[in-house]
Protein 1
Amino acid sequence: MHIAILTFDGFNELDSLIALGVLNRIKRPGWRVTLAAPTARVTSMNGVTLDATATLEEAAQAGAVLVGSGIRTREVVADAALMAQLRLDPARQLIGAQCSGTLVLARLGLLGTVLACTDLTTKPWVQEAGVGVLDQPFFADGNVATAGGCLASPYLAAWLIARSEGIAAARDALHYVAPVGEKDDYVARAMAAIAPYLPAAATPA
């Protein structure tokens, strides 16, 4: 299972790197989480520079793709050549987006008339793209999920783990990163956010 986190210049570290950390709690052969970027190196909104570990072409072939957010997302969606490289397909991939990453999915036509989650800054841009925005941290329809707010990133990662590896694996990953003394409450709250959007067979009792 290759999970590619799309990461562009101006990216938000909390979105891309928290998801990276939670997803890497899965330790099994073949499980690989990468930061996929259009260039070999990208710099965050706060000046942190990272080397990409996958290309956009590799992301197009991944089993799952998360689209991170950032301060230059509107430049990304205005770049026709760049958008043409984002060949995502919910028929064969699990796809998620965080905050302004939701705008990328909207412009790619992957949300259709489905409602979505995003951050408050991006909300009007997503609405302009014809997608209704929910006042909640997480929503999914089939193989496409969106999350709103930087600290909703673990919800998105947990949804992907639950879909791929099962509920127990998602709980364990969240438990590891949750604050000490709040672990049970944190896991329960996070799972309550994603459980309504999991297939019936995977929904926790």
Protein 2
Amino acid sequence: MRVTVRSMKSPIFVRSLSENEREDLEAGLRSKDAFVMRRSQILLASSRGEKAPKIAENLGCGTQTVRDAIHDFNERGPDALVARSSRPKRTRDAFDEESAERLRGMLHRSPREFGRESSLWTLEMAAEVAFEEGLTQRRVSGETIRATLARLLGVRWQRAKRWITSPDPLYERKKEGATC
């Protein structure tokens, strides 16, 4: 018999709303901006005492989305109705020059050497392997890999086939014979 223990998150609710905040949220229900409307629905439901899982179920979104909206409103107030940038905040510090050079070296090898079934690198695969190999302290996105290649190594991902080589001693001859 297998018993799984889930970590239950404590219920979270929006803080008490001022009259102006409540009016802003009710006006947000009529917004043409889907983000504003959804946030307003979440926050008003929470102010009525509904728990995050129930709000998520009613609105067809994730429980974490509801919790994030509530946390954001509790911290920023009505400014939480304005969507923040979804751009990653820290792509620049994922790689320093040394780890970027190690990334280059990794990409010159076959992904199969790292237990992958493909012989071609993808940005996401490179991100996974970079983390597994200790090149990064945390998991990064493929976009971070692309930005690092461009910023620190001056390489554009689209041109990868021009600078990635194979450890195969016959690589150059095969490449020359493959012109179609």
